[in-house]
Amino acid sequence: IVRYIREFSLLSGILVLGTYMSFNAVRALMIILGAPEFPSFILYCVFLMFPVSLLSGVPFTLLGDAIKQGNMTSTGASGLLTLSNTLGAMCGALAAGFLLLPLLGMEKSFYLLALGYGLVAVLVPGQYSCPRLTAKLARPIFAVVAVYLSLLVFFPFGEMSRVFFRQIAHGYEATRISNVSEGAVATNIYLEYDYLGKPEFYRLVTNSHSMSATNIHGKRYMKMFVYLPVALHPGIKNALLISYGHGSTAKALVDTASVKSIDVVDISRE
């Protein structure tokens, strides 16, 4: 049982690396087939998450059987396994949202998670080989280890910014990417639009969707969020700005002479 836990852990690590490395090819295929946006989004999620989730769930039952063989009742083994799994899920969600994404970003987080599966395979106690395992059965195990190590070595660091982020910029016909920030809530990409070699305006793209821009059309309606309430209620002293964006609404508040304090609230620190 211990040996199988190692194998499934390595296979899960392979899927983490492999699905990310082949994601661009899947995306290109969807574009060629002309698949609608929303069904394609569902298929992308299934491709990235379902194989890893399914395969990494197999050791759950293997661990339960291993715990039971350690002189523990079925109820005790189930309780200990469920407790450990729940605590792991809680800690994993917190670590991914508040540590991995803000500090490492998505790409390096994938790599670190794949390393974690390999670390599990190394730390599982017991012998690394089974005496009754024939050479014919041993070859696939060595192949799994070889594939896992090869994917770690040849992992395409930088593809996220080199390919995926640039595809987003190309979709909005931007001149270049000014800045990228990955956080617990969203991935924000700032696009720059140049005219005659100088920046004309910027666009904020959050999770691939354009949220605000500093062009004349964007500034006009965003500043209207301030001009209209000030016109209806002159002498406003305190202002609450919900969602910051590029700062056009905030600039209009700053330019309002009567405003003495501005509170800004946004779910994204970035």
Account of the 3D structure:
The protein has 270 residues and is α+β, with helices and mostly antiparallel strands. Helix content is 63%, strand content 15%. It contains 8 helices and 6 strands. It has a 4-stranded antiparallel sheet with strand order 1-2-3-4. It has a two-stranded parallel ribbon with strand order 5-6. The longest helix has 50 residues, at 74-123. The radius of gyration is 26 Å and the shape is elongated.
Core attributes:
about 270 residues, alpha+beta, two-stranded parallel ribbon, 8 helices, about 65% helix, elongated
Q: What about the largest sheet?
A: 4 strands, antiparallel
Quaternary assembly: single chain
Radius of gyration: 26 Å
Strand element count: 6
| Range of strand content | 5-15%
Helix content: 55-70%
SSE order, one letter for each helix or strand: HHHHHHEEEEHEHE
Question: What structural class should be given to the helix and strand makeup?
Answer: alpha+beta
Number of helices: 8
Strand order of the largest sheet: 1-2-3-4
Shape: elongated
Name the average pLDDT. 87
Q: Which runs of at least 5 residues are low in confidence (pLDDT < 50)? A: none
Report the span from N to C terminus: 45 Å
Topology:
Elements: H1 2-21, H2 23-33, H3 37-69, H4 74-123, H5 135-153, H6 159-171, E1 176-182, E2 187-195, E3 198-206, E4 209-213, H7 216-232, E5 238-242, H8 248-254, E6 261-265
Parallel strand pairs: 5-6
Antiparallel strand pairs: 1-2, 2-3, 3-4
Summary?
This protein is of the alpha+beta class. Helix content is 63%, strand content 15%.
